[in-house]
Amino acid sequence: MASSTAVFTTTPFLLRPLANDFGTTVGAVGWISTAQLAGFVLASWTAGRYLKPVRWVFVTLGLIGIVANLASAVAPTLSVLAVTRFGSGLSLGLAAWFAWQGAFGNAEKTRDVAVVGPLIGVVLPPLITAVLGGVGYQWLFVAMAVLSASPLAFVGEVPRVDRLRPHRTRHAATRGSQAMLVALTLVTLAGSSVFVYAAAIGTDYNDLSPFVVSLLFSANAVVAIPAAKWRGRRGPAGMWFALIAGLALLMPSVHVPAIFAAVLIVWGIFFFMGIPAAFALLASRSRFPEERAGDAQAVMALGRVFGPLLGGAFIAADQTTEMGIAAGSIMLSAGLLMLYVDRGRFAHS
């Protein structure tokens, strides 16, 4: 999870350098994020249905990540780069499924996996900025290849055979879990439509330097750590995403550096209070929670596929206020749907 999170974290910082190098717009470069997430959707959805968490799968996801990132470093065109990022997405999707299938439905393990993202986010953004400013994005892709290889050091800890579920049978999702999967799709659709462009919004619309924006991303991760590891009552999951709806409205539409900084930081608290609560709600509405792990990762990635397209269209048209209204409305819909599911109407259906 740490290595795959690191790869995902680099995406917002790559958009502007890639746009400059290939002579195009940030919105157009957003397609590489879409391609990567398309691979993520395909891998996580397929893995949950046809694969088992065994050693050969673990080795395969590492090798795919290494090859895809090294190929990205030498990609001559944006089209080729999109293909290599699709390969990276396959690796990331397998990694996310591999981690979450062993944690879903277990509150302690869910907290452990959820906190990985913020921990990585604390130290990584300034390093990304330093690499981009010092040696360029090509070497950043090489660094991603090394990160993709790092989990293979633990290959001996992964069993060759899935002894707990040697003959796995898939079960249909309940109505409650289906509703939660829709809500999670909307969460990432709305969130990624704004957050993928957060670095560009900070620099282009708020006149902040890339280094300052990177520090704000680190602050976002710092405050997210205690939120992800929170052991007390979290409250309704939908409440947190209703609050994020307000942040999604403010970030692109209000071009005041102090407000941008506050929104970016507070987003980390609300999101990582909400996601474990949402996963717990999904598990409670599922007869076989571990089977919904791959589904949850896939639908959330599906939202992240179309989110950058939505946000990119608004950025390209310089309609940042409309961008905020659209993202906030979709996020609010997700929060309200979770609140509805939380009332228990679908608990046994």
Write up this protein:
The structure is a single chain. The chain has 349 residues and is an all-alpha fold. It has one domain: Growth Hormone, Chain: A (Up-down Bundle). The chain has 15 helices and no strands. It has helices spanning 2-9, 11-22, 26-50, 55-73, 78-100, 107-114, 116-134, 137-149, 175-195, 198-205, 210-228, 237-253, 257-284, 289-316, 320-342. The longest helix has 28 residues, at 257-284. The two termini are 33 Å apart.
Architecture blueprint of SSEs:
Blueprint: H1 2-9, H2 11-22, H3 26-50, H4 55-73, H5 78-100, H6 107-114, H7 116-134, H8 137-149, H9 175-195, H10 198-205, H11 210-228, H12 237-253, H13 257-284, H14 289-316, H15 320-342
Helix pairs in contact: 1-5, 1-7, 1-8, 2-3, 3-5, 3-14, 4-5, 4-8, 5-14, 6-13, 7-11, 9-12, 9-13, 9-14, 9-15, 11-13, 12-13, 12-15, 13-14, 14-15
Task: Please tag this protein with its features.
349 residues, mainly alpha, Growth Hormone, Chain: A
What would CATH call the architecture?
Up-down Bundle
- Give average pLDDT, whole number: 87
**What general form does the structure show?**
globular
Beta-strand proportion: under 5%
Helix tally equals 15
Short structural summary:
It is built from 15 helices and no strands.
